Predict the structure.
Amino acid sequence: MTKFTVVIPARYASTRFEGKPLALIKGKPMLQHVHERALEAGASSIIVATDDPRIEKAARAFGADVCMTSSEHQSGTTRISEVISIRGIEKSEIVVNVQGDEPFIPPENIRQCADNLATNTNYPMSTLCYPIDDAEDVLNPNVVKVVKSEKGKALYFSRAPIPFTRGQIILNEQGQLEAANLALKMQLNNGQAESQFKYFRHIGIYGYRASFIKAYANMPDSALEHIESLEQLRVLDRGFDIHIEIAKKLPPHGVDTPEDLRKFS
């Protein structure tokens, strides 16, 4: 079995949902649900990384290992880099970044991300995706899309509909994206691997070797990562490859807003 560490970056401040990791789902903080999924995945160790004493207190209350980090981090990956330094995690250790707003991510997916990195030793990083069968998700900028190669290499991530299917996605009179008969095409092709209309939703879970996380934190920012607000684009822009595979199970969408939370409560 692949040995791996899970780090759960969790911050209190959020423009759309302040205090999100501590929001209650079925009587437990969201963060606790994430921690339980990591336990079920078989992680050898699980660390909650935060800069907020309120999150530290709640995490310790349900028995989590907590590492306090700087409040200056702009991404979960750089926060994990600090954890690696503080805890002295070995360079070769596989670390899986499980985001704190994914309370029901399947444990199988967490392990899959670690196993894929252990198997594909020429990649410094791994992630997952899942086919989209809803045209609204293709057009939704909050649903990140990814284009991948047949051999499992991520080619690009975007909030835009990629690949752009000419003739199926149009602009309406207000200049907004609309599907022509894309929804019908996607329904007809649902489940067919060889469909030219196949879109993939990126699932925001990452596996890396500890040494690469440190390297990432020292890389210059990428214009692409800021334009799309997607931290993984720094990796592609600097010439590194990301392994990607279809997830074993489809996770529900993460919790971004209080409205999202009501769906799970």
Summary: Residues 152 and 244 are 5 Å apart (CA to CA). Residues 107-119 form the longest helix (13 residues). The chain has a mean pLDDT of 88.
